[in-house]
Design goal:
With about 550 residues, this protein is of the alpha/beta class. The protein has a seven-stranded mixed barrel with strand order 6-8-7-10-11-12-13. Strand 2 and strand 3 form a beta hairpin. Helix 8 packs across helix 10 and helix 12 runs parallel beside helix 13.
């Protein structure tokens, strides 16, 4: 028996009937008992295999639940559960449908019980039910303009302080050359209060309802809106309201007869207030595009890398991916810096596993990575030094974190020795992070060195050069692949290994940023057959280490 038939049997058993007028979904209509009263609803299954939650709609909200505010979306759709929180079993269609119907009834009972203003506030932008618009405004912005962006796949608007913020869209085949000439002023309203709806203050459909809502937030906001619209006349009557729990706004659709009656802009505010019941509010819901949102949204309580001075040495297979990950984690923002150092150019042999692609062929890797980061993360302050890092050792000592992603033991030894010496001789010296691949990409390892109490990079080998924490099995020796003249021999591995190594290094950077660097030596075994297990730990120092042992005499 297929899923659709079992879904049908369960819905019919619950006294629901199939609405065969619906051609884009499997729709059933019926009623649910909500606190002793029958509420007419429609349940839509977008796919018959229960890969998506069925949707719930109120058929007659004004009659059945006239005071409903929370979790009521566009077209009276009810948000009764999140896709990621309610996972259905496609092998048990009837049981899954029964679970959904239970959640639907519970949600309707909670909605009918009270206003749930706190829950409305948590998802206020969704309850606003506006057309999406990107908002790229820093905290404390004093002015705002709407800029049209045209590109293949659809046009959209961005609300920003100036057209300079639109450069991020230039590489997406976007037409922004006319944006400055086509910009429209936006009335910018701000409040420190959390926005919500009540039984008497609903989603505003006309200006009169909007003014009442604004007055409930602050008595100054209604007049600020009307005055701002009057100053911007005859431009579009656009506004946005920024609050701690979201950004919403809209456009006042002024009737043509009313617009013709405006002799002078200064009279528009009074005219709008007088005719507020006839002016429609075309609502907009702001989607944040500012750096503070982009680089903090996915971090929860985890500090990002903003405000830190970070140097990345080696923009090869590991360093290229790591540069991208660092930028996406806030490096180079909030007054911080991200500096990339590499004296090598991108060659055809690199393209199979390097982050940079064919457009950067022949370009210095550090310069190419900076260009690509500016394209994808224009808010990051990124600098490129296309030279050997050893020429800039003194400069590196002024950073908070120096990352060695060269994967070359000799280079890492020299960098490690310089950084160890700096930490010994200076009150303030950078923390160092070394990251490398083992053998033919069978494992990734990284070591954070931030004091003399734990191992430095050289401490990982004995004075005779043997590994203290053996990782590579003897029956899987590392084998270099010979290359043509002009190219160095190399270890053969795919793109996955360096990306995993970069991910390991990034996590250690984030742990360092939140003052939780332990364990300082970490390992990812990519090929278990080729490697031994090495537990993550704070590796002990090597007695008489050539790099970090206390100098004699």
């Amino acid at each position: 028996m297929d899923s659709a038939r079992e879904i049908h049997q369960e819905m019919v058993a619950r006294q629901f009937r199939r609405d065969r007028r619906s051609v884009r979904s499997i729709r059933y209509e019926g009623s649910l008992d909500v606190r002793g009263r029958s509420v007419s609803v429609a349940v839509e299954f977008l796919v018959p295999h229960l890969g998506r939650l069925p949707r719930l709609y109120l058929k007659n909200r004004v009659v059945d639940l006239p005071d409903a505010v929370a979790h009521v979306e566009e077209n009276d759709r009810i948000c009764y559960a999140r896709e990621e929180e309610l996972v259905l079993d496609p092998h048990n269609p009837r049981g899954s449908v029964a679970l959904c119907m239970l959640k639907m009834q519970e949600a309707l009972e909670r909605i009918a019980k009270g206003e749930l203003q706190d829950e409305v506030a948590q998802e206020f932008p969704q309850h606003w039910q506006g057309t999406s618009v990107y908002v790229d405004l820093p905290p404390g912005a004093k002015a705002a303009f709407a800029f049209p962006v045209r590109r293949d796949g659809g046009n959209f608007n961005v609300i920003a302080e100036s057209s300079k913020r639109l450069k991020r869209f230039e590489v997406c085949d976007a037409e922004i050359r006319t944006a400055e000439a086509s910009k429209a002023p936006v009335v910018l309203l701000t409040t420190d209060r959390t926005l919500t709806f009540t039984r008497t203050l609903r989603v505003p459909r006309v200006l009169a309802e909007l003014l009442a809502l604004l007055a409930s937030v602050s008595e100054d906001l209604p007049q600020m809106l009307l005055s701002g619209v009057a100053r911007a006349w005859p431009n579009q009557s656009l506004f946005i309201l920024r609050a701690p729990n979201g950004t919403v706004g809209g456009r006042l659709v002024i009737p043509s007869l009313l617009a013709k009656a405006v002799q002078r802009p200064q009279f528009l505010a009074k005219l709008l207030q007088k005719k507020a019941g006839t002016v429609i509010v075309d609502r907009l819901t702001g989607l944040s595009l500012d750096p503070s949102f982009i680089y903090r949204r996915n971090m929860a309580e985890q500090p990002n890398l903003g405000g830190k001075k970070i140097a990345l040495v080696g923009i090869g297979t590991i360093g290229g991916w790591l540069a991208r990950f660092l930028a996406q984690s806030g490096a180079g923002t909030d007054g911080g810096r991200l500096v990339l150092l590499d004296d090598d150019n991108l060659r055809p042999g690199n393209l199979g596993r390097h982050w940079l692609g064919t457009p950067y062929l022949g370009m210095n890797k550090a310069v190419g990575a900076r260009k690509e980061l500016y394209r994808t993360n224009p808010d990051c302050e990124v600098a490129a030094i296309p030279e050997d890092a050893f020429k800039h050792i003194s400069t590196l000592m002024d950073f908070d974190l120096v990352i060695d992603a060269t994967g070359e033991q000799a280079v890492s030894d020299v960098l490690n020795a310089d950084l160890v010496r700096a930490r010994r001789e200076r009150q303030k010296a950078p923390t160092s992070l070394h990251v490398w691949l083992v053998g033919s990409g069978v494992a990734a390892q990284a070591l954070l060195a931030d004091s003399g109490e734990n191992a430095c990079f050289r401490c990982l080998r004995t004075t005779d050069g043997l590994e203290r924490n053996r990782l590579l099995r003897p029956d899987h020796p590392a084998a270099l692949t010979p290359a043509n003249c002009g190219e160095g021999a190399y270890f053969a591995y795919g793109v996955g290994a360096p990306a995993m190594a970069a991910g390991l290094a990034l996590q250690m950077c984030l742990d360092w940023a939140k003052d939780a660097p332990s364990p300082r030596l970490r390992t990812i075994r990519i090929n278990h057959e080729a490697t031994f297990e090495v537990k993550d730990k704070n590796a002990a120092r090597l007695e008489n280490c050539p790099a970090c042992a206390a100098p004699q005499g």
